[in-house]
Amino acid sequence: MTTCRLAVWGLRGVARVTLANNPLTGALILAALYWASPWQGLLGTLGALASTLTAVIMGQDSAEVSGGHHGCNGMLVSLLMGVFSSAGDWYWRLLLPVCLGSATCVFVSSGLSSVLARWDLPVSVFPFNIIIILYLLCVGPDNLDFPHQPALPPGALAPNSTKVVAVEVMRGIPLGVGQIFACAALGPSLLILGAVALYSPLLAAHALLGSAVGSLAGLSMAVHHHSLYSGLSGFNGALGCMSVGGLFFTFNWRTHLLAITSAFLSAYADIALGNLLGTVGLPACSWAATLTATLMLLLTGSLAAYRIPTGQVMAPEHNLHACSQRAAGNTTERERTVV
Amino acid sequence: MTTCRLAVWGLRGVARVTLANNPLTGALILAALYWASPWQGLLGTLGALASTLTAVIMGQDSAEVSGGHHGCNGMLVSLLMGVFSSAGDWYWRLLLPVCLGSATCVFVSSGLSSVLARWDLPVSVFPFNIIIILYLLCVGPDNLDFPHQPALPPGALAPNSTKVVAVEVMRGIPLGVGQIFACAALGPSLLILGAVALYSPLLAAHALLGSAVGSLAGLSMAVHHHSLYSGLSGFNGALGCMSVGGLFFTFNWRTHLLAITSAFLSAYADIALGNLLGTVGLPACSWAATLTATLMLLLTGSLAAYRIPTGQVMAPEHNLHACSQRAAGNTTERERTVV
Amino acid sequence: MTTCRLAVWGLRGVARVTLANNPLTGALILAALYWASPWQGLLGTLGALASTLTAVIMGQDSAEVSGGHHGCNGMLVSLLMGVFSSAGDWYWRLLLPVCLGSATCVFVSSGLSSVLARWDLPVSVFPFNIIIILYLLCVGPDNLDFPHQPALPPGALAPNSTKVVAVEVMRGIPLGVGQIFACAALGPSLLILGAVALYSPLLAAHALLGSAVGSLAGLSMAVHHHSLYSGLSGFNGALGCMSVGGLFFTFNWRTHLLAITSAFLSAYADIALGNLLGTVGLPACSWAATLTATLMLLLTGSLAAYRIPTGQVMAPEHNLHACSQRAAGNTTERERTVV
């Protein structure tokens, strides 16, 4: 029973990375990861379980634990530790930092939530971004136990010598959705997209739209072709677009435009942060999308009226429904007052 | 009518950079910029208009828009984009990032204001500093479309081989006021100083005093002579001195000393941040003065009693008058209570 | 009379660095510093006095001044300025930045306290960490007046060629307590440990435990042997362990485990930050321990129940006593209610 519940919480954590809140979506995504690479699938499973379990032991808020807020960060940390490792698959020694790193996410998550709650902001994937950067810095560039490839500063790369291949860029757009989980294979990426669509077609549409916007931004800045083709240019745009388009804001044409703006800002900020962190051999992870989404949630003015309080966020379709019901309720009430 | 109002808001934004709130001051400063370089004048005008217009479209608080809080950041971003560009004047392609960057300032400004409002802090020019750094990082050191010169780390420069020329340093003090608008010509700088004096002589005096303090700090740290002669050493000191001396604090001898301290801290912090950001080829912009002024506004203890709430800030002379009136009111009230 | 009071405040400031609040502990620590190096002792005395005096002049909260919150930061800044200076002992010109830097700490401290008070967080040694980094950046790597050795990035060091000597590592554990004051001699370090034990044996035990944890973390990451032997690997762990174990949390077996976790996080974060800041020639100071301790104080969930409000923090033994009294009081009250 308890094991089953832990599994459901872990799967919710997997789904939460794409802002979905559904164990079935999580199971499909996990299947896609195992399909792409069984080793990465194992790491992800372990990370989600380790951080969820740590949160239970530390006595964290049970609604947050069962909603997968802790599992989500732990999973991302372990997936990225696997991707940056240059020791190859089935390098069992990596399981130690994977478990410890995932557990540490709970501390960062818990502490940050106290600070961010003042502005009704979600902790989002800040803990993942902090812990993965600290891990890469801590093991250093040439660790014997945990070797990893340093991120190259863009100036060190040879400039693009060939022309952009349009088909490859088009292929990079769905790959951008897969890259949210550091997965660069087309089949699993499409399965992940399908899993998101199962939870909410609107969310999946924004993911694709955001990834396309990210590729466009990458093209305009003449980034290295590999980034475009592998979907690395797209995934920050996808995350930035998803969080605004329908999830944290009621969907309408104004917030739709805001979601596209958010995707552009995320994508350009990702290029900027990549250039900055590349100078010290670090990757930009999803800092750009996380910061941009947080900025959008802080917006004042007339757009703030469409924002949904963090505690009431549901699937975009439900948000829309709840909003129209509230509007109807208000009308009824006003009519009653008039009568 | 609307165009006229937009123009006034834009001019207030231009004046706001020097902490003044007066369209006439803004018009004179803009004239000084066109005098120094018509291209820079055009960029500044465009930036101020683009960000003000974006703020109107986004439905930002109308008092903030008409006060020029958005125009000010947009203008600075576009002026600095022009200065750092190595493509020369009348490079029309630059207008695209100028418009987009100025518009983005509104998002950052709006988001930051939610956070800073908790401590009754103004957003100040934080959005400008963030956006210009992200822009320079994003286009990178050798972009073909938007080339720009990287800031050199101080170690890379040859040490000063000649003695300091006192007259040149003296000339650098008024230039420090012009450098707030990235303007390095003496005539326009003096016109800018005059425009500030038109709004408030006390503010202009603090600008000169702060610039002198900045040059002194630069001399003590043996910075490169070019920085002293061009006013680059002085402008952070000027900004730090202006914001404390009379504007955000009621003017008296204690706050005057605080203003001088603020100028020294701004100037030394500017040298420190310049050395740090120079290692990755970035300029320090006005980060030092903005952070120092924010720190001063957060001060607790007996100095906090002189602080003027952000919503009631006027010209230094008006602040002084309002304060003495309040004091008189208090006395009358106390007398009444006694009676 | 006033001089005597100032001396007591200064000595409290010296003790406050090790989280103790006792002038006698401060006097013993100061004696240990004079024993290790009279020049460093002089610098520390001067720094503690300069910042306490500045706080008095600026009209800071008198409870904070007399508690030594300002003296503590000023002392650390001046000690570290002395350690990083490469001009040797009795280099009188250094007294100028020592006094100015210590005084500046009061501004940073006062400003930060406004921000951190929202979450009932102590300012801790954030001002010291900020000011020493700004000082090192400002004077730059090859200043003629204030020369100092740059911190080397770990990649630039030759890898460890010999085996670890266990005895030397054991010797590094008490040295880690001394390194809190940048003191690398065994005798004075033991005296400092004794001075802490005089205030609270529990605090001293946690200091040793944390230093041991830090050395363990350093061993696991194969840091340079010099760091292990000199205690530099241990002092962040010691600080992280002390602040959680008994001081800011009521001591029991759960918070004891949290203190060990805090020591590990501090030590690993120190290695990470050392690698990051080393790339620009800066030391990591006690950023890691300060950030980790702040994170621990922000924790939500069932562990937050053991947290002691900042205003009621006393020695660990007193905390424990006060807590058991409160519990007894609650029981009595409940019994009364039942009756």
Account of the protein in words:
Chain A is mainly α and 339 residues long. Chain A contains 15 helices and no strands. In chain A, helix 5 (69-84) runs parallel beside helix 7. Chain A is globular and about 70 Å long. Chain A starts with a helix and ends with a helix. The model of chain A has no long low-confidence stretch (mean pLDDT 89). The A-B interface holds A 118-119, 154-155, 221-222, 261, 265, 268-269, 271-273, 275-276, 279, 294-296, 298-303 and B 58-61, 104, 107-108, 110-115, 118, 133-135, 137-145, 280.
SSE layout and pairings?
Three copies of one chain form a homotrimer.
Chain A: H1 2-16, H2 23-36, H3 38-57, H4 62-66, H5 69-84, H6 95-116, H7 126-139, H8 166-178, H9 186-199, H10 201-220, H11 225-230, H12 235-248, H13 253-278, H14 287-298, H15 316-338
Helix pairs in contact in A: 1-2, 1-3, 1-5, 2-3, 2-9, 3-5, 3-6, 5-6, 5-7, 6-7, 8-9, 8-10, 8-12, 9-10, 10-12, 10-13, 12-13, 12-14, 12-15, 13-14
Average pLDDT of chain A works out at 89
Strand pairing plus helix content of chain A: what structural class? mainly alpha
Largest interface: A-B, 25 and 27 residues
Percent of residues of chain A in beta strands? Answer: under 5%
- Indicate the radius of gyration of chain A in whole angstroms: 20 Å
In DSSP terms (H or I, runs of 4 or more residues), the helix count of chain A works out at 15
Number of strands of chain A: 0
How would you describe the oligomerization state of the chains in this entry? homotrimer
Largest sheet of chain A: none
Calculate the terminal CA-CA distance of chain A, rounded to whole Å.
Answer: 54 Å
Low-confidence stretches of chain A: none
Shape of chain A: globular
Order of helices and strands of chain A: HHHHHHHHHHHHHHH
